[in-house]
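Case study 2.
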Amino acid sequence: MSKNIAFVPIRKGSKSIINKNIKPFCGQPLVYWVIRALENSKSIDKVVLASNIPKIFEILSPYNFKKIEYFERSDQNAQDESTTESVLLEYLNLEKHSPNDKIILTQVTSPFTLPNDFDKALIKMNQGNLDSIFSCVEFKRFLWDKNSKPINYDFKFRPRRQDFDGVLLENGAFYISSIEKIMKSKNRISGKIGNYIMPEFTYIEIDEIDDWIIAETLMKKYCIKNTLSSEIKYLFSDVDGVLTDSGMYYFNSNDESKKFNTRDGYAFEMLSQKGIKTGIITGEKTKIVEKRAKKLKLDFLFQGVKDKLQLINKFCYDNNVDINSIGFIGDDVNDLNLLSALKFKACPNDAVDSIKQIPNIHILSKSGGDGVVREYVEYLLKNE
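Prediction:
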């Protein structure tokens, strides 16, 4: 039985937008969105990420994608003048597949594709007995050539937009063809070609910074409303340096105190209203924190924790919880392992450098004790 293999080529060295493919786009690396859609497609059997970006595995490993395989593209096929076909053929010449297997060539610079777009396009391809199919949008604009001659309409009888068929414009989201056809033609599409029409807003391809700004706005409007808040099920926070400013206050009576921010308290309540469980994970064990957790009606309190990642792994195992549904806010080296393993992670602006250097971590604008939990919660829920 033939397989459907998604092929995702990315490379380092983007000129117009530095580190474009791994730059945070709507809160996640740009490459994440296409891989996520492919991962959730019912029709895709395998996702091949062809890259020469250092630490790409480290960047994507916290997401625990099950279908992904990594292919290290050669430097020769990762130059400015290199074509997408060159790296695709490099892969196909090195890896053995059935000639009937289909390649779904996708581009991360078109992040709007949904899982069922791949499914529907493959169904249309099979039902139409097509050799290839490409994604596109209906383009109802009047085109002229450089000699001022109309290309797709008669200007003497200008049609109304609603009566105008227009043309089809490639949106670059994906191209599908069999391995046999690709190897024979040396092209991404060939033979009997069909099209899969997507919504008009998906015509944007991210090449320049203006494209990026427009694409993020469209992505939030049409594609990821409620995505973050629907995926995260638990949010934990450290105490010192996150809920507090790391300061300890001592009085003549030898009592000690910590200063908490009331805005963070309401943030936990906002999460509870959305059905998201909340808690504290801290290396210390104090009555102050116990009292604060009780007042905030947090679902969990873990104190005196030496290995936070080990605790969360056990928590996931005991409660049958996916680690990708857990978020954590930390600030210091004892949070490093846990934050590195999570998909949802954030730190205060004054966190130590090793924390701020964790790939894909959300660095908040506020410092510890100034309402960082509130800021992160509002970020998670802002598309509600």
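The mean pLDDT is 91.
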